[in-house]
Amino acid sequence: MFFGVFLIFKSSIKYNLLSFDELVINLDRLSRFKLPEESFPRVFYSIILKHLIEPRLSKNDIENQKAEFIAKTVKLIWNDSVSKVCKIRSNSNFPNIALKSLIKNTFKNIDERTKIFLNTDLNIASVLKNLNYEQIPLNLKFLMKLLEHENDGMTFEYIREKYSLCFPVEKLLIVEGITEEILLPVFADKLKKNFNKNGIFILGAGGKSKSPSLYLKLKNRLKIPVIMLFDEDAKEICTNLKDILLKKDKYILIEHGEFEDILQINLIKRALNNEYLPAVPLNISDLRKSEKMCNNIEAFYRTRHLGEFKKSKLAKIIAQNVKYETDITEEIKKIISHVVL
Description:
The protein is of the alpha/beta class. The protein has helices at 20-31, 36-51, 59-64, 67-85, 94-106, 112-118, 125-129, 138-148, 156-163, 178-190, 211-218, 235-241, 265-276, 293-303, 311-319, 330-339; strands at 3-8, 11-16, 52-54, 171-175, 200-204, 226-230, 250-253. The chain contains 16 helices and 7 strands. The strands form 2 sheets. Strands 5-4-6-7 form a 4-stranded parallel β-sheet. The chain has a 3-stranded antiparallel β-sheet with strand order 1-2-3. 32% of the residues are buried. The model is unreliable at 1-10 (pLDDT under 50).
């Protein structure tokens, strides 16, 4: 195991190096769409806790240390690790400048401690140089393409649209559940309103009751607009939201039922039959209009002995079977038009 010993703040410190995988994981966490007060302290404290040998600090000790000490120690451990474990190295500071710009253009009211962490010059360019583009998330792909085009004079927005990378995020779409999270980008793409090209970041709240609290957490921290999508039964929630909604933000209420209820019936039939044949096929007559679509599909799973019905699995099956614009109902088209203006 590699370790280093350096004099910092007139004290000798000893530490283990980060592996390349650890560098990648931490860079991913720093560049995700997340409040910087959550992502930066988490990464910086974790590096100190896991890799600083002397002086040995507890989690409580780390949280009470001055931000400057934490930042300088993390910079030392990070950059020394990069020099040892990255085969291809770069001294470019452009990705750092870009990441700071992205965060500052997306979030406001960043606290002073986090600003110190944000301004720490970690060598992230060398990490990016060693990544496999096809195997990394969009946030890292965006930074990688920025570094690749450092001297080309391309704007962030141009790179986002050219490579469909979502970043910089222009708008946040909060949805209730996994079905919307999986299918809306697929439908938007079929309508030539690609979410990633337009900088639409979609975030599942995990239920209608959690969407307002998520909005309250973010509304005074975001510089970008927020759109919330609700099922029909969230009318009371939407009424209460009117009093706290910022002018740049809005909500959309599904007209009839929940998201599964406004899916194209022929698309559902095709998707389930393609997935589960030669089991007894689903017929349109099996889908009773008086029942919620999820209840109909749950009955289909139960009567065919197909195991537990899960919305996430259904959404993935449907996503694989979207072929035509006619697979998208008018209400879903209208929702996407409201999101991608």
